[in-house]
Amino acid sequence: MQPIVREEVPADVHSIEAVTVAAFANAPHSSDTEQHIVNALRRSGALTISLVAQLDGVLVGHIALSPVSISDGSTRWFGLGPISVLPAHQGHGVGSALMTAALAALRQHGAQGCALLGEPGYYGRFGFRATPDLVLPGVPAGYFQALHLGTATARGIVTYHPAFEATS
Q: Where are the domains of the chain?
């Protein structure tokens, strides 16, 4: 069954938090702050795109996109993450549906590109590639990836919104 993907509404906030906590509960790379990041992005008005996935009316996934800064002054670039899918629904196309919808939404917003920190094997399916032109300090180069959506080329150090430092 294919999930229904739609924009979040205020009534989704608690379910998004629960899905995010569950999705990262046993993730070895998690800082256990992902739900706080999403909430801080929302509070600061930096949650540019926030989509949820539903199956049979139950929220089972969420994806967040927010603006990033690039040291060369490039504009209209976004950071993808976190993306969360309930463990019981992982590997069944929910994450792919969220990714496809998020990339379509970015294109509609006129985004020039999107950056993320994640598994190259998974995100490569959507066109993301590690590039020496974009750097996230302190992160292994292969895991920081970008997807150019526009014609402008970006080069430099990428900085995520301060909400990514949220701990509560």
A: 4-165
How far does Cα 9 stand from its chain's mean position? 18
pLDDT at 1: 81
C-alpha distances (whole Å) from 42 to each of 89, 157, 163 are: 25, 24, 9
Rounded-to-integer distance, Cα 31 and Cα 144, Å? 17
Q: Which residues pair with 8 in a beta bridge?
A: none
Tell me how many helices (H) and strands (E) the chain has.
4, 9
What is the pLDDT, as a whole number, of residue 105?
98
Tokens 């526009």 identify what position? 150
The DSSP string of 3-62 is PEEEE--GGGHHHHHHHHHHHHTT-TT--S-HHHHHHHHHHHT---EEEEEEETTEEEEE
* CATH for the stretch 4-165: 3.40.630.30
**What whole-number distance in Å separates Cα of residue 62 and Cα of residue 92?**
14
CA distance to 6, 50, 167, per residue, from 12 (Å): 11, 10, 21
Give the residue ranges of the chain where pLDDT is below 50.
none
Q: Is the pTM of this model over 0.90?
A: yes
